[in-house]
Amino acid sequence: MAPSRRRSYAVGAAVAWISGGLAYLILEAIAAAAFRPHYSYTHNLISDLGATSPLAWLMNTAFCLQGTLFLVGAILTVRALDTRKAWLFLALAAANAAGNILIAFFHSGPSGTAGVHAAGAVLAIVGGNAAILASSSVIIGPAWYRRVSTGLAVFGLLSFIVFVIELTTPAVHLPPPAVWERCSVYPITAWQIFTAAWLLIRRPIL
């Protein structure tokens, strides 16, 4: 593949990941600001914004954008790096996308869709963090880049385990579940923006 074509794919991947990450954070903040009577990032779950916020549609749009652009960025990265070792990375990125879309359309709570919402959360969070670990077979970066990527993914997965334990074991008294939920979600967003920036400043870009 011509270097110019590979560069175009890499730039496209970076734009997708930065756009998805920033759009998610911005739309989440807007939906939180509209929440009544008050939304707490440390006590309210993210799914509250997609179910009961006056701007729930905006939060659900954020879920769909994040999932879709995470997968688009992964596909374009694989095209840019012209690798055949990417099936696991792409499968996990697709799981993340599917999970985010399920979260957007099926909400938590007493309704019959709570189980689908929970399955979507597992796909989005575990799939996204696992995709970061699998990306090492696709994105061959320097040692510091690999350490940061691995650290984000491991932190996200461990936080999700603590989050599930807190939800299912009332006797466990740790920081609120919402804190651990965000600690499992935000590493994915941080990694995609971090990797997008690295793709853009890499010399040569590929």
Radius of gyration: 17 Å
Q: Which stretches are low in confidence, meaning pLDDT under 50 for 5 or more residues running?
A: none
So what's the oligomer here? single chain
Amino- and carboxy-terminal Cα gap: 12 Å
> How many strands appear in the DSSP assignment?
0
Q: Indicate the mean pLDDT.
A: 90
Q: Describe the biggest sheet? A: none
SSE string: HHHHHHH
Number of helices: 7
Indicate the structural class.
Answer: mainly alpha
Q: Tell me the β content.
A: under 5%
Whole-number tally of structural domains: 1
Helix share bin: over 70%
Shape field: globular
Overview of this protein structure:
By secondary structure, this protein is mainly alpha-helical. The protein contains 7 helices and no strands. It starts with a helix and ends in a 5-residue tail after the last helix. Helix 1 (3-34) runs antiparallel to helix 3, helix 1 (3-34) packs antiparallel against helix 7 (177-201) and helix 5 packs antiparallel against helix 6. 75% of the residues lie in helices and 0% in strands. The protein has one domain (3-201).
